[in-house]
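User: Here's a structure from my thesis project, written as structure tokens. My advisor, Dr. K., wants to see whether a designed sequence matches the one we expressed. Can you design one independently, without my sequence as a hint?
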């Protein structure tokens, strides 16, 4: 029984599998039939759409062809019209040319007749000209016979007579104009100068060669002198200023022709006395710092001066030169004050004459910069100042005014005579200048330059109003024996080359230092 049941189960399973396969097959055939139907439908729709697209493209192509054909016809019509117009113009030109040819034939006949007439007239004029020349020669010959002079001599005499008459008339005219100009110019110049002088006033300056250093008590004098005078010698050697310690209560006198040196010595001594440490090493340190301070003060003075005068764009080197004028004098007159005075005078006078007052002030301030050279030069100070101005980019009018204010070169602008006049006004007022002081300072400078002309000289100071020349030499280059010989040679050169009152003592100092540092 179990076997039968197993067989029946297997048969049922087989039957169920067969039924499932049959059902699946029927489903697949249905799906295939539906797919074929869908494909046919899509194919039919694609054919229909392709036909419609084909028809649209054919219609578009036909429209494009029609448009191109119309444009081509238009181009052909334009070309035909242009060709017709060109043919018309050619026919018109041909007709015009033919008319002109007919007209020229008639004109040629008239032109040939006129040419013949002109030829006849030219020949007639040539005959008449020959006859006139013959008559002129006859008249000249008759005049030469009557006057006893040839034609060339008569011409020369006539020209000489005309020249004399013209020269006489010109001289009389020039004389009249000069007299009239002198009257007018003198009146105007007097008016301008008076107005300028009345509108400016400056204090009268008196430059001297001595500065007084005031002390709190006479006890400080001994510290300044130092043991065996070493401090005062160190000060004199470092600054080149003669320090006079006498019986004057609470005062020490500083004597030197160079105001810069005197100022350095005065400020250095003030710092030393205030600090209380006075010895040779400290003195050298303070003097070195003071020299730098003075250099800065020179630059500041130059800047303040150009700002006060309203001068802009001045080169920094020229500003320093203006600052150095504070410590220079000309014929006893402070050079900076003189230059400021000339600048103000020039500005006022230029305004009166209708010129640019700023340019005039600029030239007036710089007109004496050649008097403050860092190195001595053989050139006149006006030419040297002009060279500096040209070097540092000043305008030609300013340079010419600087160089021509003492007539070393020709004046080429109206600013030059203004500078010359204002310089004379500033220097000619009472008490402005003293010739003796300027020549004295020049003599002291010449003394120092004489010492520097020898090899081995490190420093040279003219002290005691030029009665002593103190020379400091380099110990490596000059021995003790050569120092004595150098002193003799310098004294001989001073005696032979210079003129001076009294005697000049030449002191040559040779110093050897040994310095070590303890660490």
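Assistant: Designed independently from the structure alone:
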């Amino acid at each position: 029984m179990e076997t039968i049941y197993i067989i029946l189960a297997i048969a049922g399973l087989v039957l169920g599998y067969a039924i499932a396969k049959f059902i699946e097959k029927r489903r697949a055939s249905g799906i295939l039939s539906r797919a074929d139907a869908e494909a046919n439908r899509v194919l039919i729709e694609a054919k229909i759409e392709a036909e419609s697209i084909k028809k649209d493209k054919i219609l578009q192509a036909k429209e494009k062809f029609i448009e191109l054909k119309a444009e081509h016809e238009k181009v052909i019509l334009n070309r035909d019209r242009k060709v017709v117009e060109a043919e018309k113009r050619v026919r018109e030109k041909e007709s015009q040319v033919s008319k002109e040819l007919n007209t020229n034939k008639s004109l040629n006949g008239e032109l040939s007749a006129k040419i013949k007439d002109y030829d006849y007239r030219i020949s007639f004029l040539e005959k008449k000209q020959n006859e006139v020349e013959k008559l002129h020669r006859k008249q000249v010959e008759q005049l030469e016979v009557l006057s006893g002079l040839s034609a060339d001599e008569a011409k020369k005499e006539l020209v000489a007579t005309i020249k004399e008459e013209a020269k006489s008339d010109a001289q009389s005219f020039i004389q009249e104009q000069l007299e009239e100009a002198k009257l007018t110019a003198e009146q105007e110049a007097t008016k301008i100068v008076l107005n300028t002088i009345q509108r400016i006033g400056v204090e009268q300056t008196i430059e001297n060669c001595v500065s007084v250093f005031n002390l709190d008590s006479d006890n400080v004098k001994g510290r300044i002198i130092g043991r065996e005078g070493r401090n005062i010698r160190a000060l004199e050697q470092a600054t080149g200023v003669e320090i006079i310690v006498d019986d004057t209560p609470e005062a020490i006198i500083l004597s030197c022709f160079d105001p810069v040196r005197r100022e350095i010595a005065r400020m250095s001594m003030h710092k030393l006395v205030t600090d209380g440490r006075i010895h040779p090493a400290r003195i050298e340190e303070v003097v070195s710092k003071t020299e730098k301070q003075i250099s800065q003060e020179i630059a500041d003075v130059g800047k303040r001066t150009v700002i006060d005068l309203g001068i802009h764009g001045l080169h920094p080197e020229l500003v320093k030169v203006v600052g150095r004028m504070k410590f220079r004098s000309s014929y006893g007159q402070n050079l900076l004050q003189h230059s400021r005075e000339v600048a103000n005078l020039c500005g006022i006078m230029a305004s009166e004459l209708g010129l640019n007052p700023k340019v005039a002030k600029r030239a007036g301030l710089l007109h004496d910069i050649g008097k403050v050279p860092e190195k001595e030069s053989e050139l006149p100070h006006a030419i040297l100042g002009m060279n500096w101005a040209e070097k540092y980019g000043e305008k030609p009018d300013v340079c010419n005014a600087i160089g021509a204010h003492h007539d070393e070169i020709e004046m080429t602008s109206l600013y030059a005579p203004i500078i010359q006049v204002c310089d004379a006004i500033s220097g000619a007022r009472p008490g402005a200048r003293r010739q003796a002081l300027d020549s004295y300072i020049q003599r002291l400078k010449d003394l120092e330059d004489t010492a520097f002309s020898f090899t081995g000289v490190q420093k040279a100071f003219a002290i005691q109003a030029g009665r002593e020349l103190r020379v400091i030499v380099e110990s490596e280059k000059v021995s003790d024996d050569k120092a004595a010989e150098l002193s003799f040679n310098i004294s001989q050169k001073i005696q032979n080359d210079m003129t001076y009152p009294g005697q000049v003592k030449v002191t040559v100092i040779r110093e050897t230092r040994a310095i070590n540092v303890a660490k």
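When you compare it with your expressed construct, this may help: Residues 2-147 form the longest helix (146 residues).
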